[in-house]
Give the backbone structure.
Amino acid sequence: MNEQQVSAMVLADALNDRYEESSQDIGRFNLAVFGPSGVGKSTLINAIFGYDVAETGVGEPVTKESRLYFHDDGQFGLLDTQGLELADTLDEILDALRAMIRDLRSQPIEDQVHVAWYCVAGSGRFQETDERFVNALRELDLPVVFVMTKVPNSDGVPDEKAMVLADVIADAGIDIVTGRPVLTNALGDDWTSDSVFGLEDLLHVTREAAPEGLEGAVVAAQKLDLEMKHEAARAAILKALDRISTSGITRAPVMQTWGYLLSEISIIYRVRKEASAQVLSRAIESLEEEGIIQFGSEASDPLRFGAGAAGAATAAVAIGAAPFLALLGVPILIGMWKRNRDSQRRQEGVVRLFTQMLGSSWEEACLSWAQAHEGSSFVTRSEEDAMVRDFVATFTEAARVFVNDQSER
Ligand SMILES: Nc1nc2c(ncn2[C@@H]2O[C@H](COP(=O)(O)OP(=O)(O)OP(=O)(O)O)[C@@H](O)[C@H]2O)c(=O)[nH]1
Ligand SMILES: [Mg+2]
């Protein structure tokens, strides 16, 4: 490993140091899904959470011989049944569920079951079993989202019979989230005019039903709504800027803030820790090769900058106030830093600007990966290359805008 690689690892290390903690902070959203076999539960889960039961396995039976399976992955946990004829096994499932929920009561909130989906076929009927099951879930204090699946529709407009069923359910006097069922169809069909619809609706209702403090976990767990993720990433950047304002600009707290920021964005977009660290260190190395960023040789050194893409002459500037920037010298920021070396507030501005650039570039890389990627959080080699390119391009563009902005003054 050469010196450049060591330096490039600094941000990857910051992310590595904070990833687990960030994951804990965001928490895990645990969803329980019920409904008769074949109604489309697993298909729906896969469409919204990209969680392919066929691929990931059904998980562990909750108790020996139990028909409840729990499986978790990152910010998402799923309590599922497999191939159950619900009416025949109703009491058995409810007993197992009651025992499980009772056991979980003493656990931290993120280990409990948060929301239940109760699914019936959109072409079916509302039966006494459905009512009993929903009431039993409510007695366990679970918010119940009533889902109609495989709803026959014409380009997303539910057919008449499904509308009638929805009204029957809404009028049945059961305690369900929003008071009405959510109508969905998770698979399109070229032969009929059935379209995919209702998935966003179901996601939003589910997020609303999740306990306070776990909405972020729902946002990270789902793969359907990238705008939702974008909002969460913007909030993470603002939080990082706030942290810098309150904790000051000495090295340790700033590194910590960058570690939280980078890992939170990774988690929001479901990019795993190892892939994140790898992409980050490669991107920083590449920025250094292009002279956009330069690293000082030692952490304790006074701030040192070399000639960068901006064509600045080699400069060695000693500023004791922020030794951490010895590790991450940004040539385009030198001018601003030098002019403002007497002002703590303006130096903070430099660090905030770098934080902003870092967050936006990392988000861009994660976002375009998520747009191109279906489902799992596995990052292929070519996807990794694309993420490096996206990060470098976004960062470089932000740097260019900044340089132009400075030279116009
Ligand atoms: N047309 C259409 N078919 C669907 C839809 N959802 C599921 N299917 C099909 O229905 C079948 C059963 O779907 P699953 O998602 O496995 O049903 P499940 O409720 O998980 O069933 P169990 O795991 O046995 O309890 C599969 O062949 C799916 O392809 C849908 O929204 N529309
Ligand atoms: Mg299933």
About this structure: The radius of gyration is 26 Å. DSSP finds 14 helices and eleven strands in the chain. The first strand starts at residue 29 and ends at 34. The domain at 28-213 is CATH 3.40.50.300 (Rossmann fold).
